[in-house]
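Figure 2 data, in text form.
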Amino acid sequence: MTGTIEYFYTHVSPWAYMGHALFIDLAARHGMTVEFRPVNLGGVFDASGGMPLAKRHPVRQSYRLIELQRWRDKRNLPLTIHPRHFPADPTLADCCALAILKAGGPVADFSDRLFRHLWAQEGDLNDRASLEAIATSLGADGARMLADAESAEIKAAYAANQARAIELGVIGSPCYVLQGEPFWGQDRLDLLSDALESRREAYKPV
């Protein structure tokens, strides 16, 4: 199969972090183009009935912590359960990824580094010096990235990603959309792989 997978994610999502490298590899193995769509989940939750973490029932918050430990071990990734700079506003980091994308830079590697910066190294996604240094280390123009991230064009692209997510029925991060069919969560990567290998038609709501 050849085609496109729309990849909706935000850098404050530990689940997106745990699935990121596996997804990028999966898409490459199947010759798929990835459309990177960093997204603000606020409007997505509002449209789909989801709840931001701080507003979820304590039982659900506790279960999330158990799942993080399970999947950290399953994926064999370094992950701090309570990073020092979480929760955080993801807007700047997400828009930096969009700026890297606009410039034709290594957005997959940049997002990987941002995930690790927050979830493995307890870094601050709103520290401009860190964001610039990460971009520069990947051969991108970090200063230009930061300037572009706050431009009207990038802000419009970020808003458009949210609107697109709502249109496609995305309900959280990460979500991989193949031929209009959403696969929500890094624990659905096996199902996405099955769909790519079988070349079946997309499932639709019935």
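Caption note: Residues 3-198 form a domain with the Glutaredoxin fold (CATH 3.40.30.10).
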